[in-house]
Amino acid sequence: MKKLLNTLYITQPDVYLSLDGDNIVVLKDEEKLGRLPLHNLEAIISFGYTGASPALMGYCAERNISLTFFTMNGRFLARVIGESRGNVVLRKKQYAISENEHLSAKIARNFIVGKIYNHKWILERMTRDYPLRIDVAAFKAISQQLSVLLTEVRNCEDLPRLRGLEGQAAASYFRLFDSMILQQKKDFYFHSRSRRPPLDNVNAMLSFAYSLLANDVSAALEGVGLDAYVGFMHRDRPGRASLALDVMEELRGVYADRFVLSLINKQVVSGEDFLKKESGAIIMKDEARKKFLAAWQQKKQEKITHPYLGEKISWGLVPHAQALLLARYLRNDLDEYPPFLWK
After folding, report:
1. How far apart are CA 77 and CA 70, in angstroms?
2. Which of 283, 313, 339, 342 shows the shortest CA–CA distance to 113?
3. Read out DSSP for 137-182?
4. From the annotation, which residues make up the binding site for Mn(2+)?
5. Quick one: which residues bind Mn(2+) (predicted)?
C-alpha cells in the first residue's frame, strides 16, 4: 500500500477492500494488512484485487473518490466514479489544449526535455561504469550535443520545431546504441531503428518493450481520468494512443532501452530466441517472449526514488505517478508538468 499525493496505490495481490467508518481497510484471507483514512484521498488504484465492498464503492462514489482496478500486469480493467464532477472538466481541458498547437507545444516540450535529459544520463553513466569498454570521447561528444539540444527544447514553443529537435536528439543517441551492447555482439547489434517490421534481434526487443510500455502508460492515463488517445505532441490518429506516446517519450530510454540492454548484456536472451521470416522480419520465439515478460514484471517491482516526488516507489508505478502529475497540471494544481528526470 503506497500513498502518493492524494492517491492510494494498492499493489499487494489478492486483497479485498472494505470500509470501516471513514477508513479503507485492506484485507487478505481476513487478515488486516492496512487501514487508512479516506477523507483526504482523491483516488484509489488497486492492482490484482479480489473484490471491493459495495459500502466502500458507495462511499467513494458519494465523495468523488475514484476507484480504479488493474490486473497485476498493469492492464486497465475498470474505473468506478460517482457523478462526473471532475473528469469531464479534466478531459475538456485536455481536448482544448490538444486543439491549440502553441499550448500543446508548451506541454510537449517537457516530455522531450525528460527524454533528452534521460538519454544524456544513460550515456554519462556508460562512461562512468564502462570507461575501458567504450569510446568515452565519442560518448562525451554526443552528451554535449544533447545538452545543447536540451537548451533549445526548453525554449521551444513551436510544435514542428520541437519534433525536429526531438528527431535530432534521438538520432544522436541511437548512433551510440550499438556501443552500449557489451555482450553477444555476433547476435545482437544495432545499426538503425527499424519498426515495421523489426529487421534485427535488438529492434525486435525494442519494439516489444515499447509496446509494453505504451500499454502501461495508457492504463495509467485511463486510471486518472485522461483520454490516452488525445495527445499534445503526437496528433490525433484513429486507433493510436497519442497521449500515451507523448508521456512515454521520457521513459523510453531509462525504462525500455536500459531493460533491453540489460537482457542482452546479462545474457538472459540469446540469438536462439529469435526467428527470421521470409520477409526479413525478426520475431521472438514464444518461450523468449514469456522470458521477456517475466523479466519485465520483475523490473516493475524494482524500487527507485521518484525525482520529483522524493518518494520511494516501484518502477511499475512510475507511469502512474507521471499520469497523476499530468492530471494535476491540467487541473492547475501545478504550474508546470514535471517530467521524470533520471540520473
Report:
1. 5
2. 339
3. HHHHHHHHHHHHHHHHHHT---HHHHHHHHHHHHHHHHTTTGGG--
4. 166, 234, 249
5. 166, 234, 249
Q: At what angle do helices 136-154 and 159-174 cross, to 10 degrees?
A: 170
- Residue 316 is given by DSSP the state G
Q: Residue 114 contacts by C-beta under 8 Å, 6 or more apart in sequence?
A: 249, 250, 251, 339, 340, 341
pLDDT at 86: 53
Residues 6 or more apart whose Cβ sits within 8 Å of residue 204: 198, 274, 282, 283, 284
CB 247 within 8 A of CB 111: yes
CA distance 108 to 101: 10
Alpha carbon distance 326, 334 (integer Å)? 9
CA distance 265 to 126: 13
227-236 tens-digit pLDDT: 999 999 988 8
Q: How far is CA 168 from CA 24, 146, 174, 187, in A?
A: 49, 9, 10, 28
Please tell me the least confidently modeled range out of 7-16, 266-275, 297-306: 7-16
Place of cell 521477456: 292
Mean pLDDT of the chain: 89
Nearest residue to 35 (alpha-carbon basis) of 81, 1, 7: 1
According to DSSP H, which parts of 272-330 are helical? 286-301, 318-330
Binding-site residues, in ranges, read 166, 234, 249
* pLDDT digits 0-9 by tens, 149-176: 999 999 999 999 999 999 999 999 999 9
Helix (H) or strand (E) holding 215: helix 201-223
